[in-house]
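Purpose: get a first structural picture of the assembly so the mutagenesis plan has something to point at.
Setup: four entries, given in the order below. No constraints added.
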Amino acid sequence: MKSQPITIKDIARILGISPSTVSRALKDHPDISPKTKQLVQTFAEKVNYRPNALALSLRSSKTNTIGIVIPEIVHHFFSSVISGIEDVAYGRGYNAIICQTNENYQREVIDLQALVDNRVDGILVSMSKNTHEFTHFENLRENGVPVVFFDRICEQISSDRVIADDFEGARIATKHLIGKGCKKIMHLAAPQHLLIGKNRKEGFTSALKEHKLVSDDRYIIKCDTREAVFAKADDIIRLAPEIDGIFAVNDSTAIAAMQVLQRNGYSIPKDIAVAGFGDGPNANIAYPPLTTVEQKGYDIGQAAMRLLIGHIEGTVEDEEFETKIFTPELVERTSSQLGHNVR
Amino acid sequence: MKSQPITIKDIARILGISPSTVSRALKDHPDISPKTKQLVQTFAEKVNYRPNALALSLRSSKTNTIGIVIPEIVHHFFSSVISGIEDVAYGRGYNAIICQTNENYQREVIDLQALVDNRVDGILVSMSKNTHEFTHFENLRENGVPVVFFDRICEQISSDRVIADDFEGARIATKHLIGKGCKKIMHLAAPQHLLIGKNRKEGFTSALKEHKLVSDDRYIIKCDTREAVFAKADDIIRLAPEIDGIFAVNDSTAIAAMQVLQRNGYSIPKDIAVAGFGDGPNANIAYPPLTTVEQKGYDIGQAAMRLLIGHIEGTVEDEEFETKIFTPELVERTSSQLGHNVR
DNA sequence: ATGAAAGCGCTAACAT
DNA sequence: ATGTTAGCGCTTTCAT
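Result (structure tokens, whole complex):
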């Protein structure tokens, strides 16, 4: 029962007219007589004719499809970005293909290649954590495929970029903790070869300096996942008696740290105030609800897609690149109310 | 600088040979002389030749691409399923296009149409909550596109299916609560036109009956999202004094219910024991950690993709359908320890 | 107002 | 061992 989809040629044969007439009739070409148009359109409707997108794309070298390459779909931030991208994309007649690299460099290379092979009109990329080679990005340029980086941008490649102001976000969160009375704040940091790791750490230290607080390297612990926190639990607990605040590079790290401290008899936020980064839905589920900075994923996605369309449709000069920066906003909840008891 | 990608024709012209020779040389055809092969392959490598997947697919009417249509990417269950699908797919030389419907029927129709237009080799679908018309699924069959439903299957369409045993999972969770001493258990239920809603409720009532507990309709509250729980908070609080357990249709609903109860002075699990369904990462983040049943998303994804490949590659009879069922497993945590205090 | 022909990039039957 | 041709489905110039 695997019936081949009907083609323009089929319609032409059945109706006893030429393929070109069918093609024109279907798109209301003025040359075609109303009678023929009527005939063709009605028939096409009846047999549920659908143009073959492959053939269309091959002919026009335009797929109306863009590729999205991201580390992990499951993170709230990335899925907000995807929603932003998709809403703009669909509105402008583009389809989006999502590829997740699972933070795997090899997969990133393969995914990009597959997108290029399938002649997508443009690509939106957020780099994997393990990417240190950039020739696969350079190849895109050589192939004439427009690219916009977002969030995890590649500094070595000149291109449009859309980012959250990680430095400022970290600074805001840290100043908030200081405002709540914290004097000795620990930072749970991401790897420093990642821009977000570097910028958030620098925002953190900048806030400390501004308020003339000591910036103790011992208080900077490298862990940026839930698992990493549990692996470093001993280090955190050893320092816990000295500190009164934690700023974590993301929400899951912040939440895991709260759990580690609570299991060791500390009360949050009474003994130690905590702030995270990202504002996913976890922040509300956490106990106590987590103070964090909101990253505006949806806006970032929209902006990235708009920039990409600018390049695809040639409304922007080819070598003219732009960087859009979104400043995060503090979302204050219970976890940062130093000294307060929570039920 | 938008250089068109190089084609076989280009190579042929430059090397002064015919396109067919180039094509054959590139795929090690035995007819071609080693010298020519060497020449062509080296050159192709040098200019970074890549076949145009569009042209390939058009010619072979085989795209080596499958479509995934799911309600929401962000849910842990669905992203596990995607990982399972992708791992099998890549291993067998298929690419996957992910479409999220956002539980929107119209979007589901559009996404499926786009996939068919792009001639994917097969489609994996988990239905949107708001889908009550099924002609768009029937059209797939008419177009000869193999489909496998998973999790949110469509009863009205005969096809391969991969599901979690929701009835049994709900029964296991409910019996667990009963075993912990619960006598009056509330159920937070999903809409009954959804199979998962129906099956989980029936698993719940079946466990009650088995243990000769009363099944009170007042204890069945319709809410299956975090927001819905807050909307029904008054109803839940009104009944809270009577009950000693809650079985929720999913984890976020269970967690929201715990929060509502806690904010109203109830202690979990001392006063009321709670169990959820799904075992996403939230279950660990919740306070107290949530007892729930694990849905085996990764396995379901793998199984669904394997079934789909069977149909695509014709190793399975066309009208021969299979249903694979995965039984969830209980993951016992703190939220269900009725009578116990948690710090 | 309609049709014939060519071509998007590729491959495979059919020459030579 | 290599080249010529035709065709996948579609559109569009160029006839008529």
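Residues 7-9, 19-20, 23-24, 27, 51-52, 54-56, 58-60 of chain A lie near DNA strand D (CB under 10 Å from a C1').
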